[in-house]
Design goal:
alpha+beta; 2 strands
Length: about 100
């Protein structure tokens, strides 16, 4: 049997052996992706103070609360960011039930 060598068909002796990767310096096993890391950090619980109470909430919620407080106090950049986030989440779209 003859073996045709050509595009996408390297010689048998130059193929990767079973279990061997072509990218030896690729992503190491166990390294987390950026999205996974971001999700983990934003879901960590932190302590916030509301009046006399101390509550533990996810970091993402604390960030949104801080953004709302700054916008309420008159910070124009925080207000613009809050409006943009609300639009992206579909908060201002019409309710089809109305």
């Amino acid at each position: 049997m003859t073996y045709d060598v050509g595009y996408g068909r390297p010689p048998v002796r130059h193929r990767f052996k079973p279990g061997q990767s072509g990218n030896l310096k690729g992503r190491p096993k166990g390294r987390k992706k950026m999205g996974t890391l971001l999700e983990a950090v934003l879901s960590e619980r932190v302590s916030i103070r509301e009046g006399d109470k101390v509550r533990r909430v996810p970091r993402a919620e604390a960030m949104v609360r801080m953004l709302v407080m700054k916008a309420t106090k008159g910070d124009a950049k925080a207000f613009a960011t809050l409006i943009t986030l609300s639009q992206q989440s579909g908060e201002f779209e019409k309710d089809p039930r109305l």
